[in-house]
Design brief:
The chain folds into two domains: 163 residues, 3-Layer(aba) Sandwich (Rossmann fold); 86 residues. It has nine helices and seven strands.
Length: 261
Amino acid sequence: MLKAVVFDMDDTLIDINLSAFIAVYAMDVARLLADIARRNPLAMLATVTGAMLELNNNDRPQDDHRTNGAFYAESIRRRCDVPLDDPVIVEAFTCYEREILPRKNDAIIAARPRAGAREAVELVLSRGLRVGLFTNPSFSRACVECRMGWGELGDLPFEVVTTMENSTRCKPDPQYYREHLDRMGLSPSEVLMVGNDPKRDFPTPDIGLQTAFVGRGEPVRATWSGPMADFAKDFDTIEARFYERQERNLLDIVQDTAGRG
């Protein structure tokens, strides 16, 4: 039974030039680190981008249960010897992410609510389903909340919002999806993911979590594909396809089990 719908954020629930946002954020963080370490800002930019790439590569042992925040902090420390957990440095970064970053939304980043996004979440809630915000957890809670504010999402009752602080992997690693579905007390077969990224919003390898795709194209694995503006009005169709695919998956499992027997 479908019990919850979880949504990606960037270019799913909000329109944003994500590459521009990441570039601005990385440069600002590099300048902060350069001031702290008394290094060249361009050299520190390489440190920041290297740490971000390392985090998103998910190249970690299975028994590495550090949060993404701890993993990222260790990567920064190893590269430039700046301890991000130092209270003074924590205060500096908190001030930046809470006070300065929210004012960085300009004509290039162009973050704003996406057509149909709020209607989609509210429609799901009206059907008695639960909702989560499954944005790629390579940013802190403050940074995620900044973009939520730009998209006017802050008042929506997401049960889980994935961030650096509460995640141990990034998309599309199955561990990322499993750990947050576990927090909600749900199995992958009871949840529909909604996202725009064909590489990140489908767990790899597949864990039985279906995805409604609101990006460009029609991925084979998608249960439904279309613009976010159509999600709410098409939800009956989306739900029907969810159950059809679920039945096919169960039949495949039964046939596979019988074949092995």
